[in-house]
Amino acid sequence: MTRLRLGTLMVAATGNRPSLPTAVALAILAGPSFWLFFWSWLRPELHLSWPLHAPGRFLLAALVYPVLEEMVFRGGVQGALLGWPWGRRSCVGITGANLATTLSFALFHLFAHTPGWALAVILPSLVFGYFRDRTGRLGTSIGLHIWYNAGYFWLFG
Fold first, then answer.
1. SS3 assignment, position 13
2. Are 93 and 106 a contacting pair, CB within 8 Å?
3. pLDDT tens, 93-122?
4. Staple 150 to which of 54, 62, 82, 109, CB 3.0 to 4.6 Å?
5. CA 152 to CA 157: how far, in whole Å?
6. Shortest CA distance to 30 belongs to which of 125, 135, 156, 157?
7. pTM higher than the cut 0.85
8. Residue 1: which residues within 8 A CB-CB, separation 6 or more?
9. By three-state DSSP, how is residue 113 classified?
10. Using CA atoms, how far apart are residues 130 and 74, in angstroms rounded to an integer?
11. For residue 96, what is the DSSP state?
């Protein structure tokens, strides 16, 4: 077992895989990095108070949709695909079930988004699926999906 120091956070890691708390912390930090990248690339005009004027729309995008999507895609689709031998095979921490679920998740987003934005959900979807595989539960995936959507829709509405 190796001890790693990440800022002031001391974590234990085995092999190449970070400890679960470290992986979650990195996934949480990835959200603001993603938002900053898109803000610097697109340079949208920010209206940070918009959720106060349309709370229903914000809550749907930031809370309701992530919970429903995780239940359907990570809970239903990915859970079913993990029942197949190819679905349990893993490469760099990504199972076949996670990859297939991510592709269906991106295709699903084509109904409401341009192809570019549908492709943009691939990396976050792989992250959600990674935690679904790693923990066997949906809690972390749901929490991260809410975090990512809340920040994204608050900034880019």
1. strand
2. no
3. 999 999 999 999 999 999 988 999 899 999
4. 62
5. 7
6. 125
7. yes
8. 12, 13, 14
9. coil
10. 10
11. H
Distances (CA, A) of 59 to 3, 10, 54, 64, 117: 40, 35, 9, 6, 20
Distance CA 79, CA 7 (A): 35
Structure tokens at 58: 């914000």
154: CB partners within 8 A, 6+ apart: 48, 50, 51, 58, 62
Q: What is the secondary structure of 65-106 as a DSSP string?
A: HHHHHIIIIIIIIIHHHTTSHHHH-EETTEEHHHHHHHHHHH
* Other beta carbons within 10 Å of 14: 9
Q: Are the CB atoms for 144 and 106 separated by under 8 Å?
A: no
Residue 63, C-beta contacts closer than 8 angstroms, at least 6 positions apart: 146, 149, 150
DSSP run (H or E) holding 31: helix 20-42
Tell me the pLDDT tens digit for each residue of 15-60. Answer: 578 999 999 999 999 999 989 988 888 888 888 999 999 999 999 9
